[in-house]
Write a structure and sequence with these properties.
By secondary structure, the protein is an all-alpha fold. It contains twelve helices and four strands; from the N terminus they run H-H-H-H-H-H-H-E-H-H-E-E-H-H-H-E. Among the domains are: about 70 residues, no CATH class; about 55 residues, DNA polymerase, domain 1, CATH 1.10.150; about 60 residues, Orthogonal Bundle (DNA polymerase, domain 1), CATH 1.10.150.280. The N and C termini lie far apart (about 130 Å).
């Protein structure tokens, strides 16, 4: 076989070869044209997505700015009616923008706050916020149910507990161990909630030896402490007479400390002074200093 015979194609072979060459050229041209448009399409899609994201990014930035402004706002405390207070007053009280918006939506839908406890149902309001605002919520009588008008007139002379209490002025004080819940609410920042907490904690302790003990109540407003003084009216417990369950009821004696006292009495006899408690690893110097106001032997 000669070399020229190797490269020789008959007519049918040449037709097939020419067809495939044309097909390859057309395919390459198609890929080039469509590929360029695809890149443009991708770029257009990216631009579209960027434009779609920009309003959200703007809103997020706006929301963050409002949050930062809310954190930096100076919080004020003053009497307000949630049925009539405007947005400026509500923001000054420390509420967030979206909480104020929820109040407006509630009022626009016909909702009415008829008593301070109704304000606690505000969506998003925390327990701490309500405790701080409760003493300053004053609902106008115009929003009270009409059905109660006759009852109020009939019991007007006897009803003294729900009248507006005159708040103490700077320099005035109450006896922390003798004041009831009504008197306690005369202290600025103290409402029914904290008044009840004070009385219950006083009963558990046996009385307060210092107004600073009020700081042991969760979220208690520190500015209210200066309106109290304490008298020497404390009920003391005999640590040699009480059982374990009775000992650990006192806020300053936990289970392990009560058990340590019981073991000491069982092994060594009655306690005669607080110095003996210093020998027990469960009692710190701070524990003993607090207990000295409440124990007898």
């Amino acid at each position: 076989m000669k070399l020229k015979d190797f490269f020789y194609f008959n007519r049918s072979d040449r037709a097939v070869l020419l067809f495939f060459l044309c097909l390859a050229v057309v395919s390459m041209a198609f890929i080039f044209i469509v590929g360029g448009d695809g890149e443009d399409t991708v770029l257009e899609m990216e631009d579209t997505l960027s434009r779609r994201e920009s309003p959200y990014s703007s809103y997020r930035s706006h929301a963050n700015r409002h949050y930062i402004e809310a954190e930096n706002r100076q919080v004020e405390r003053f009497a307000f009616d949630p049925n009539t207070a405007d947005s400026t007053e509500l923001l000054r009280l420390g509420l967030h923008y979206w909480q104020v918006r929820n109040i407006y939506k509630y009022r626009a839908a016909g909702g009415v706050y008829r008593r301070p406890a109704d304000f606690a149902r505000l969506y998003g309001l925390t327990r701490k916020q309500y405790r701080e605002l409760e003493p300053y919520i004053h609902i106008s009588s115009d929003y009270a149910p009409a059905a109660g008008l006759f009852a109020e007139e009939r019991h007007e002379r006897r009803d003294t507990t729900h009248r507006y209490l005159r708040k103490l002025k700077v320099g005035e004080q109450l006896d922390l161990n003798l004041s009831d819940t009504t008197a306690l609410q005369r202290v600025p920042g103290i409402g029914p909630y904290f008044a009840g907490r004070i009385v219950r904690y006083r009963q558990r302790l046996g009385g307060f030896y210092s107004a600073r003990q009020l700081e042991e109540i969760e979220d208690f407003p520190k500015e209210a402490i200066f309106f109290f003084h304490t008298s020497n009216n404390i009920h003391k417990i005999n640590v040699n007479m009480l059982k374990l369950n009775e000992l650990k009821r006192h806020p300053y004696i936990n289970y392990y400390q009560a058990k340590a006292i019981m073991d000491y009495r069982r092994l060594r006899g009655p306690l005669h002074s607080l110095d003996e408690l210093r020998l027990l690893k469960d009692f710190t110097a701070e524990d003993i200093a607090r207990l000295q106001h409440y124990v007898i032997f």
